[in-house]
Amino acid sequence: MKSEASTSAAPLKGLVGPLRSSEPALALPAVSPAVHLLEEAADLLVVHLDFHAALETCERAWQSLAEEPASGTVVEVKCSLCVVGIQALAEMDRWREALSWVLGYYHVPEKLPPKVLELCILLYSKMKDPEAVLGVAGAWLQDPDNQGLPEYGSLAKLHLFRLLLPLGRLSEAEELAVGSAAFSEEQRVEALQAIHTARQQLTQEHLNSQEPQKLRQEGSFPRKLLSLLMLLRRLWGSAVSHLLSQPFRKGLLAALILCLLVLRFDPAPSSLPFLYQLTQLFRRIQKAMLSRLYPLTLRD
């Protein structure tokens, strides 16, 4: 950035040529105070690395230009002041203020010099904040007065590759590449290929983000089934522990002793028909099983 500042300010040093002895003194145009301030600001930025002083000098130069009539020299000085001021803000890590600082002097995006807009696009895209300058660049490109400038094609390309594609605005990028006459056929093919590649990457990222979600949804049913089985196991364990508890075992033992006493003192079939039938059934089952296991012994 520092080299750009010195380069931008260098041509302005020759705005007033050296005075020759053969020329009358009245032929020398008056040197604008803003030109001296611009040279001072560039010197503070590049040589002394006093970025705060360089920014203040640019602001003083802008104030002096308010009284100057519009001319080609004034336009160049304003553009160079913006370049130096933007670089000073970036060096002080105040790059977020660069766009608003410039618009404070030009007021509307459409009036920004191409060099200033290019520097803003490069700065904000490098700092991973392309959205901050997206609206300004779009407004500048849509202005009919700017579409005839020689820098329009390079700025349109920067807008597409540095702003629209990183932000995923593929439809706008495709519309710009196809509909703008600023792109040559080779540049148009290059832009469309880049848009196609970016669209494939977005599609792949979308599929990759959906795959874990799909796996989580598919795995939710086995987890629910496992939770249900664990719940049933806990219920079964609780029931078994209840059945095997001391009071229940005592009650079961008391009922068994009572049945044995009844059978012992009143073994008649008519007194307890249910128990009698159950006993006969057990005897028949036992006899059938023994006959299968020992057929010859039972026959003998």
Task: Kindly describe this structure.
The chain has 300 residues and is mainly alpha-helical. The protein contains 13 helices and no strands. 22% of the residues are buried. Residues 1-30 have low confidence and may be disordered.
Structure keywords:
300 residues; disordered N terminus; mainly alpha; 13 helices; 73% helix
Distance between the termini: 117 Å
Please give the oligomerization state of what you see: single chain
Q: Work out the strand percent.
A: under 5%
Round the mean pLDDT to the nearest integer and report it.
78
Radius of gyration of CA atoms, rounded to a whole number: 47 Å
Q: Which residues form runs of ≥5 with pLDDT under 50?
A: 1-30
> How many DSSP E strands?
0
